[in-house]
Amino acid sequence: MEGLPTTTQAERRWRSKNLQTSKPSLVMAFFSCVAWLYVAGRLWQDAENRTLLSNLLKKNIEQRPKVLTVEDKLMVLGCKDLERRIVEVEMDLTLAKSQGYLKHQLRQSESSSEQKLLAVIGVYTGFGSHLKRNTFRGSWMPKGDALKKLEERGVVIRFVIGRSANRGDSLDRNIDEENRKTKDFLILEGHEEAQEELPKKVKLFFSTAVQNWDAEFYIKVDDNIDIDLEGLIGLLERRRGQDSAYIGCMKSGEVVAEEGRPWYEPEWWKFGDEKSYFRHASGSLLILTKNLARYININSASLKTYAHDDISVGSWIMGVQATYIDDNRLCCSSIRQGFHPF
């Protein structure tokens, strides 16, 4: 028994106490390790996310079009004078439009007829003017075969009218029926016939006429005057080949600013303190050469209309290089007495 080792009670107590104190330390160490792994994983994941977002942002920035001003683009391209050339081309285009030149319209007119007409005469009429039209057809305006022969001489005459506000009603049907018999109407499908719409009617008439017929002159005539047709043809024959001619009884006058008075102009304030109209041809009979009628057709969408058709036409012509020809034989008093040829 003496040779066997013996353990005292104090040693056993020390070992038991040491074992009890090491268990919490192991647990704490384990949780610390887990926490460290969790934090390291989150940091790694956040780093990957940041890298991914950074790459996406960089890619979007590279793909996003760079916003440059026109000035920047001109500097990058190294063609600073391009801006000047663009301005010059725009000015040339505006000048060409003002002179009535349009490539596809020239081809159309050249192919539409071999012989160029002398004139297209549009006689304004309305739904209630049937008796006036019959009077015209029996006086200075030919009808039937005589009208066709006049067209062979190069002069086309048509009554100009729009459509009723109630499309397809009896007013429209009566005009269609009359036109089937006489074949002497130019019906403006896009125009609503009304007294207050006359300025728009004159714009649409010149635009439609220059598209339908290739002529030297385009003439607007009211249906309350009589003219000497042969005298008018003689006047036009003498003016053949004259570009940019604006012919009529030239006048100007007071701008009526009081509402309710005849010839009231709602936009009177645009005509200055003197309240006087600019020089323009009377609306009873006015004549435009082909390039001026073409100018109206090309720019019809932007041309301003006023309360009266003759003022409207005068304002359009005032903005181009036109030759004003004042002929007092085209004034109302002379016309009613009969137009006398040169």
Automatic annotation (TrEMBL):
Subcellular location: Golgi apparatus membrane
Cited InterPro entries: DUF4094, Glyco_trans_31
Domain of life: Eukaryota
E.C. number: 2.4.1.-
Domain named DUF4094: residues: 22-99
Pathway membership, UniProt: Protein modification; protein glycosylation
Annotated membrane topology: Single-pass type II membrane protein
Keywords: Glycosyltransferase, Golgi apparatus, Manganese, Membrane, Signal-anchor, Transferase, Transmembrane, Transmembrane helix
Family listed: Belongs to the glycosyltransferase 31 family.
Function: Possesses hydroxyproline O-galactosyltransferase activity. Transfers galactose from UDP-galactose to hydroxyproline residues in the arabinogalactan proteins (AGPs). Is specific for AGPs containing non-contiguous peptidyl hydroxyproline residues. The addition of galactose onto the peptidyl hydroxyproline residues in AGP core proteins represents the first committed step in arabinogalactan polysaccharide addition. AGP glycans play essential roles in both vegetative and reproductive plant growth.
Protein's name in the database: Hexosyltransferase
